[in-house]
Automatic annotation (TrEMBL):
A Pfam family of this chain: LRRNT_2
Gene Ontology MF terms: ATP binding
UniProt domain Protein kinase: residue ranges: 319-585
Domain of life: Eukaryota
Name used for this protein in its record: Protein kinase domain-containing protein
InterPro entries tied to this protein: Kinase-like_dom_sf, Leu-rich_rpt, LRR_dom_sf, LRR_N_plant-typ, PRK1-6/SRF4-like, Prot_kinase_dom, Protein_kinase_ATP_BS
Organism: Penstemon smallii
SUPFAM superfamilies recorded: L domain-like, Protein kinase-like (PK-like)
Main location: membrane
Annotated PANTHER family: (WILD MALAYSIAN BANANA) HYPOTHETICAL PROTEIN (PTHR48007:SF79), LEUCINE-RICH REPEAT RECEPTOR-LIKE PROTEIN KINASE PXC1 (PTHR48007)
Amino acid sequence: ETIKVRDALVQFMSKLSPLHDQNESNWGWNKTSDPCKDNWKGITCHNNSPTIKKIVLEELNLTGQLDAISLCTAKSLTVLSLNSNNIMGTISEDISKCSKLTHIYLHTNNFSGNLPNSLSKLSNLKRLDVSKNRFSGAIPDMSRISGLLTFLAENNNFNGGIPNFDFSNLETFNVSNNNLSGPAPDFGGRFNETSLLNNPGLCGNLLSNSCPLSTPSAKNRDSFNKNYFIYSGYAAIGFIILCLLAFLLIQKGKSKQKNNDPKEEFKKEASISTTSSETKKRSEFSITSAESAKGSPSSSLVVLSSAVVNGLRFEDLLRSPAELIGRGKNGSLYKVMMMKEKLNVAVKRIRDWEITGDGFKKRMQRIDEVKHVNVMNIVAFYCSKQEKLLVYEFQENGSLFKLLHGSQNGQSLEWESRLNVAAKISAALSFMHENLQADGIAHGNLKSSNILFSKQMDPCLSEYGLAEVENDQDRSFLDQKNAFKSDVYSFGLILLELLTGKLVQNNGFDIANWVNSAIREEWTVEVFDKGLVSEGANEEQMVNLLHVALKCINSSPEARPNMREIVGMINSIKDYEVKSSNSDP
Ligand SMILES: Nc1ncnc2c1ncn2[C@@H]1O[C@H](COP(=O)(O)OP(=O)(O)OP(=O)(O)O)[C@@H](O)[C@H]1O
């Protein structure tokens, strides 16, 4: 199998780079070497296994064509990036054979023809960027890919209408500079007209030309959508009832052999069934208790010995009503209401994480061992082949993201509190980094929505170690040893968010680029949150913290400070506050 993949990849490269002598440039990519062991150019393999994970061949002047059949022989491929080359021709329907793909980046090439409809079969896809090519025809309907976060198709020749997308989940969307026509979709406030500009036939409220009354409106499409979801809802309910019946029958058979070992008190096994109504954000989620899968430790729910769990009846957790709070990059988050205990917990369901059951268990137990007051405790976790669940205490006071960008727009977060968040979170992260360095476990998905406020409004780091680092700004530095430096980068973005009050990314806006160019133009003070300026926040402290942030977001990972150094810098900025207030008359 490995040889088959290797030969197919050699073929893929020969089509991609027909005129190029790779031997001369030492790219590897030949039948006498191994893609993983011999570090072929642009190839990243899965840890400890000889399977291909990523192919990143950017800015290499590749001029050939994309041979999807050969490429997709590498079934395990998750990231394909061929940005900024000169690749021609079409993308064939065979691309869907790369079923594990999560990221496809093809921008700035010479691709033409239709985008294959089979893209919609890539159910794991998170980011698709085909901008700046010569693609034409209709944009395929990708609305069934529930985890899609990015769709960038600007600067092509696409025509026809804009198909359905789940805009509430997309982080970035752009179809500007095409030939699209018909009514523009309702973005629900997520994006503005810049995502649509320069499509002469498009009409709608966001654009200067409103739609004629006879044009089929977005409403009709909505009603199609609703019907579709209602029918798929019926199918889902039918399926769940069947599962429950099968489950009850198995239960009946097993209950006779039930073993009441008291040691098992905190280690219960569960089977999980969920129903989720896609038509609205809120959905039902219930966990049904099952003493099944005794022989399979990897599919058990492990309740860790944390204080909140004392007196908590596990069965109640399993049967409690729940509400879908959000769907992020790594999965969905449910608020589970435990009526009797008067306790709400947050249950995170993680999708598509390629980690073995044992690996996951060890990782969670290891993270749980390293305790810090400003890091959320894991209450329990669950792992089966298909999904992983993590249980945290629900924090009613919400996240830093909500506080900064919610209806209050950061008003309730004055400078001193922001500095306090920076100091506490940096200390927590530094502590976790130092204790988990040897295990190679970084946070992996640090952002303001993963910083939650406790009852006492103390900031707490959530979801530590739940993701491999997939930071787009940092794509070339994805390997483990850089995961910690990638956290530093993300921490720098949080500092920028605290200082500017702006979203990290919004509709093409990128906070790091913006701040860097503002500083080049020497209008540093302009970047600070207006609220902070009018509050009379200490400007010298803000400028100093901005310098820390800029060190963190240095494009070279090696040049970034480590978290311990950052803690030192932030503390001395805080000390400055003490000193200056002491010296006040
Ligand atoms: N324990 C918790 N208590 C209260 N709210 C939480 C808790 N954990 C997460 N949240 C909030 O729920 C929302 C959804 O969380 P989720 O983790 O699914 O999304 P995310 O952080 O945006 O994305 P990602 O999957 O990349 O972490 C976020 O606003 C987050 O701040």
